[in-house]
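hey
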């Protein structure tokens, strides 16, 4: 294992040593039978990760299987889990109360384990108040309910503008918050993570929980968007079928 702290070391070695070129400029090294002495096919961070994995295995701290399972658990966490919780809250007023009272216990009822989050808080968007979530420090996010945060959530512009100019930040993300509504920005931390219950769209009276579930987007659960209206849902579905 090569070790160096110089990122340029790997940059300068990446793709180096390829002695032949093709007319179209593409690298065909994986398409023909030519053996090439490629020594550094990994970028800087991949090499660091490989080194870390090697050390953890050598020291007997983690096995390959444990790492595989951990990665699978990460990929199994998606916003679909949060959508289930919100759909239940929209459909069952007693569950909604329990969710607002103690979000972790309410998620437990649905078999959703949020124990990796110290304190989980559900907040409800209404016609008067609109909550949106940011982590000003880094990227704290309710992963057991929403999966991994999107790149913009972790970006410096969002983390600063969400606080300084929340309406502007929402506009940048393509969402216009309702006129006159009170915007409340909540700062997610290592200790406390938030799930937003979006406003239930008009025209969904009498809808089943399963049908409501389809309207609940990731962004609406971060508070940077609304749930889909029935019309938006139909238009999306039509576009998918086309
Ligand atoms: Fe954070």
């Amino acid at each position: 294992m090569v070790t160096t702290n110089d990122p340029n070391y790997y940059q300068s070695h990446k793709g180096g040593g390829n002695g032949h070129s093709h007319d179209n400029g593409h690298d065909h090294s994986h398409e023909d039978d030519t053996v090439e002495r490629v020594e550094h096919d990994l970028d800087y961070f991949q090499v660091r990760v490989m080194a870390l994995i090697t050390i953890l295995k050598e020291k007997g701290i983690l096995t390959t299987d444990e790492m595989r399972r951990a990665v699978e658990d990460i990929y199994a966490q998606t916003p679909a889990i949060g959508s289930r919780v919100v759909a239940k809250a929209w459909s069952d007023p007693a569950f909604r109360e329990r969710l607002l009272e103690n979000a972790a216990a309410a998620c437990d009822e649905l078999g959703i384990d949020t124990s990796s989050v110290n304190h989980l808080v559900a907040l409800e968007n209404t016609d008067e108040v609109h909550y949106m979530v940011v982590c000003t420090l880094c990227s704290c996010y309710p992963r057991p309910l929403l999966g991994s945060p999107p790149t913009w959530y972790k970006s410096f512009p969002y983390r600063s503008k969400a606080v300084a100019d929340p309406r502007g930040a929402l506009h940048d993300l393509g969402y216009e918050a309702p006129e006159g509504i009170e915007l409340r920005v909540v700062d997610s931390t290592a200790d406390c993570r938030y799930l937003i219950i979006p406003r239930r769209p008009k025209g969904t009276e009498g809808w089943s929980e399963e049908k409501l579930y389809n309207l609940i987007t990731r962004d609406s659960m971060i508070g940077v968007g609304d749930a889909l209206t029935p019309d938006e849902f139909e238009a999306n579905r039509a576009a998918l079928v086309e």
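The chain has two domains: 7-75, 78-241. Residues 44-58 form the longest helix (15 residues).
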